[in-house]
Amino acid sequence: MREARRIKGMAIRAVTTVILLLPGIFVCIPILLLVTGSVMGSNELKDYLSPVLPNGTGFISWKIIPDYPTFSNYAKLLFFTPQFFVLFWNSMKLVTLILAGQLLVGVPAAWAFAVYRIKGSKMLFALYIVLMLLPFQVTMLSSYLVMNSFSLLDTHMAVILPAVFNTFPIFLTYGGFRTIPIELLEAARMDGAREEYIFWKIGLPLGKGGMLSAMVLGFLEYWNMMEQPMAFLEDKSLWPLSLYLPEITWDQAGYAFFASLLMLLPSVFVFMTGQDYLEQGIIYSGLKA
């Protein structure tokens, strides 16, 4: 009887493990396709992808291990495509300046909302929440008119400035500051600490979880942004990398696979290093204001 229960328990655990692993495997399949496709030759890729090409028939097929692996796509992208690196550094520049601006603008604003209770502050914060819910398509025209009036269209500042004043990082950073006990701040004031000292020495160290979660989410969002540069940037030399990949045609499929893989690496690195802060940000987003 005991042996039967043990076998039944093992069977249930095995079935549960398989059920939980299946979604993970399906999620990893696109990454596997990128890796294997990046080391395939053009003729082999054409054979596999011909059903989805114009005038193609039949069903698409794929091999995990290519028949004739080659690193020609790697050499082409790394040594013969300077345009790729121009757009790569455009993305790095845009994301870095946007996140730095959000820290400069959003952290003091979030600290003020979290610590100082004045008349009308709750209503103003509610307005921030409403602005956070507006998609880019709603604010695109007004942002375009403002950038045009300042003659900033077709410059990186047209993408950077609207993103710097995004309210979502303020919301997440506010959640981090709200976890600081108010008694601790009052005790610091009673000991004679000035407000700027409390902000630098207590607020920033204890509320860094909210700031870092906002930075991680911000990087993942702005590294992949497409609508903002499409709306405000006409010069293709100013485009970020996210707009370069759709420009690659089907006859350069292997090249596109490797370029996609390279674009994925910074996001994976940021996600892996900031995973804990990302979870904290999700928790902060559920805190009551």
Structure class: mainly alpha
Q: Work out the helix count.
A: 15
Helix content: over 70%
Quote the beta fraction. under 5%
Low-pLDDT runs of 5+ residues are: none
Largest sheet: none
Q: Please tell me how large the radius of gyration is.
A: 25 Å
For the termini, the CA-CA separation is 56 Å
- Net shape: flat
Average predicted local confidence, pLDDT: 85
SSE pattern: HHHHHHHHHHHHHHH
How many strands in all?
0
Protein name: Carbohydrate ABC transporter permease
Keywords: Cell membrane, Membrane, Transmembrane, Transmembrane helix, Transport
Pfam families: BPD_transp_1
Membrane topology: Multi-pass membrane protein
Q: Quick recap of the structure?
A:
With 289 residues, this protein is mostly helical.
Offer a few descriptive terms:
mainly alpha, 0% strand, 289 residues, MetI-like_sf
Provide an overview of this structure.
This protein is mainly α and 289 residues long. Helix content is 73%, strand content 0%. The chain has 15 helices and no strands. It has helices spanning 2-38, 42-49, 72-80, 82-115, 121-133, 136-149, 157-164, 168-178, 182-190, 195-206, 208-223, 227-232, 241-244, 253-273, 275-284. Helix 3 crosses helix 14 and helix 4 packs across helix 8. The chain is flat and about 75 Å long.
What secondary-structure arrangement, pairings included, does this model have?
Layout: H1 2-38, H2 42-49, H3 72-80, H4 82-115, H5 121-133, H6 136-149, H7 157-164, H8 168-178, H9 182-190, H10 195-206, H11 208-223, H12 227-232, H13 241-244, H14 253-273, H15 275-284
